[in-house]
């Protein structure tokens, strides 16, 4: 019988002092807008709504060609409002796969109006379960979004603000083996979806907990990293492994608990079958491991404090690579049209067609991808929304260079822009790299990860300590 060893780390709320390499302090190409620091009693409020789809709808992830036949566990949207001084944010976690850029913009605006906060102060993350409805901007399940998803998000956001009350906050972290790098390298140098035990993986699980004046916990955040794909191809609606973890910590703490997935772009749930997917039983097993980790971290919280909250907003600018040459695009399109058809054939064909159209018009497309960014700081905690399925190494770098003790990068948040691999992985190819290459007619530059890290680090400097 194998015994797992866990290495508990310092759970104090003090800010870590980490030197930032000179290479990281680069001149940004973005235009940061504001940094706000307000003193005053910290307040928090949390609310939840059920967002389970009706039977028969298509799934976003695996098995998307089959309609759902049953509900294993309800999908939810959980909203946590936090107030400090004159400023509020609403953090939201929806147990769906991805939320498209246009859809998430609409939801943030509507939730902001309902909660009385700017849209930029609404942060909404998808936990990335593959056993949920289609909420991207392509093939969107419009009836579901209009009748269930959007109204429930609005209701949760509004209720969270209405529930605001004085609070103290505590945080602790532990090592977790819930995930594993999934870019398995075969002997012929091909990269496939599987398990790569020596690949980069963010092992930290962090639990943030809020207590009221009565000394009881009423809201928790769990942050850890792994695709919610353990249930594989199935027709049961489920939150996947994360649902088991959430439910267990709620039972232990008596507090509503929300889950923020990390940079899970290259991270699979760690399963005994050696793959990156399984079945509903695998999901329950992985969830049980994660649940033990979450409870351990929660119980290791030693100090709860009345902390101030900071908000920093700005823009992140990621450069695009040069557009593909016309003859190369024509050649690639001919190969795809003559070859076997796969899951992504249509996507690749559309991208190449658009590249050819750009050349015909004498255009090259946008030179960069720009998105609005909002960072939230509570004591030693920094939340960094990332609108990509980014590689785990990027999270590790952000944490290493950050001066905050708990630097939590949240993937699949405030939008969906496909995969963002670290630069060193691009030469190996594989699923994540292919999706990165073929997401837009003019893809991001190979070193986009460097720009993302550097600009978020610089944005942290807008916090007034």
How would a crystallographer describe the biggest sheet? 5 strands, mixed
Shape: globular
Please estimate the helix content.
25-40%
Number of helices: 9
Q: Main sheet: which strands, in order across?
A: 1-17-18-19-21
User: Can you tell me the residue ranges where pLDDT is under 50 for at least 5 consecutive residues?
Assistant: 1-38
**Percent in strands:** 25-35%
Q: Assembly type of the shown chains? A: single chain
Average of the residue pLDDT scores: 90
Topology overview:
Layout: E1 34-38, E2 43-50, E3 70-71, E4 76-84, E5 87-94, H1 101-115, E6 122-126, H2 142-162, E7 165-166, E8 168-175, E9 179-181, E10 183-185, E11 191-193, E12 204-211, E13 217-224, E14 236-237, H3 241-253, E15 256-261, E16 267-269, H4 280-299, E17 309-319, H5 326-338, H6 345-361, E18 368-378, E19 381-385, E20 389-390, H7 392-401, E21 406-410, E22 419-420, H8 431-437, H9 448-460
Parallel strand pairs: 3-14, 5-6, 13-15, 19-21, 20-22
Antiparallel strand pairs: 1-17, 2-4, 2-7, 4-5, 8-12, 9-16, 10-11, 12-13, 17-18, 18-19
Plain-language structure description:
- It contains nine helices and 22 strands.
- With 465 residues, it is an alpha/beta fold.
- It folds into two domains: 36-308 and 370-413, no CATH class; 323-363, no CATH class.
- The longest helix has 21 residues, at 142-162.
- The N and C termini lie far apart (49 Å).
- The model is unreliable at 1-38 (pLDDT under 50).
Keywords summarizing the entry:
globular, alpha/beta, 5-stranded mixed sheet, disordered N terminus, 22 strands, 9 helices, 2 domains, 28% helix, 465 residues
